[in-house]
Amino acid sequence: MLTRILTQGPIPRVEIARRTGLSQAAVTKAVAPLIDAGFVTDQAASPVEGDSQLGIGRPVSPLTVVPSSVSVIGVKVTPTSLIGVTTDFTAGILNIRHEELDDTDPDVVIDRLAAHVKALINSLKSGTAVAGPLAGIGIAISGDVDAAHGVVRDSPLMGWRGVPVAELLGERVRVPIVVSNDVRALTVAEHWFGVGVNADSFAVVTIGSGIGCGLYINGEVVSGAYGVSGELGHLPLAPGDLVCTCGRRGCVETVASSDAILSRTRETTGRADLDLAGAIKLAHEGNEQAREAFDRAGEVIGSALAAMVNLVGPELVVIAGEGVAEYDLYEDRMRRAFAEHAFGAAGDCRLMLRSHTFDDWARGAAATVIRSYVRGEPPLHR
Question: For residue 76, is pLDDT > 70?
Answer without folding.
Answer: yes
